[in-house]
Each structure stands twice: as structure tokens, then as C-alpha cells.
Design goal:
Aminopeptidase, alpha+beta, about 30% helix, 5 strands
Length: about 150
């Protein structure tokens, strides 16, 4: 590891850095996945399940957003800056999110891997996640998308 960083709750002061990180890491092509929209909605929701890895005095090098509905937990948007990968930061963020969900009573955590990003599957397998037979479906509520 060697790199000094800490996992902290998301702080609005770092919002632009997290948006920049997500823009650098994710290839979102649709308006409902715009990082500024997602982050604003998560801030408004206020469930305290959004975390950052901060290095040095003020540099965001990773983030993870989680969710819990009382039945299942979800991991959304795990991102680590490309120049800080393979140093345990993603694992630390995942562990923090999992511990936070567990403390709420969560019994199962789900996540999805976007098509084209299957290379991260081994990372999640190493953390104990397994592929489950599911058909993932979604429906956009267009009147809520800016």
C-alpha cells in the first residue's frame, strides 16, 4: 500500500473532485447517469452511504456510493483514480461500504457490472461476490431526468 489515504464520508466540499473522478472513470452516455445529477440526488437523499478515499490534504482518489432499502444493500459507482489503482483503495472502499451496510442490518449486498466492464468481475469475486442468474431490467422515468 504505502500511500496515505483515509476513507471519509462524502463532503460537499469535494463534490467537484468526485464529479471529475467519475467523468474520468465511467463512460456514462445517458443523462440519468450524469455524475452531477447522481451526486446531487444522493446528497438530497442523505442516507450517509457515500464515501470517499482522500489522499494527502485534499485529493479525492476514490469513492463508493452504497444504498440500502431495508431488504438489500447495493453498491453503486465504485471509482478509483487510474493512477492510484492496485494499491488496495478499491478494496478499502468496498470494505467500508459493506461494514456500513452491515451495521444497518443488511443481510445481502448486490451490485451490477456494466456491459463492457467485465474485467472488474475478478476484483469483486476476490471480495466474495458471485455471479447470480438474473435478468437486469430498468425503466427510465424521463420526467425526472434533467
Amino acid at each position: 500500500m504505502g500511500e496515505s489515504y483515509k476513507i471519509i464520508p462524502f463532503n460537499r466540499e469535494y463534490r467537484d473532485q468526485v464529479i471529475d473522478l467519475w467523468n474520468a472513470v465511467f463512460n456514462y452516455e445517458t443523462a440519468h447517469n450524469d455524475p452531477s445529477v447522481i451526486i446531487r440526488k444522493k446528497e438530497d437523499f442523505g442516507d450517509d452511504l457515500f464515501f470517499m478515499a482522500a489522499a494527502g490534504s485534499r485529493e479525492v482518489i476514490g469513492s463508493v456510493m452504497a444504498g440500502y432499502d431495508g431488504h438489500r444493500g447495493w453498491i453503486y459507482s465504485l471509482a478509483v483514480s487510474p493512477r492510484h489503482r492496485r494499491k488496495g483503495i478499491g478494496r478499502a472502499l468496498m470494505r467500508h461500504a459493506e461494514e456500513s451496510l452491515s451495521a444497518l442490518g443488511c443481510m445481502k449486498i448486490n451490485l451490477q457490472i456494466m456491459e463492457g466492464n467485465e474485467g472488474v468481475e475478478s476484483f469483486y469475486r476476490d471480495l466474495g461476490y458471485t455471479t447470480e442468474k438474473r435478468i437486469s431490467m430498468g425503466k427510465r422515468i424521463t420526467e425526472n431526468i434533467p
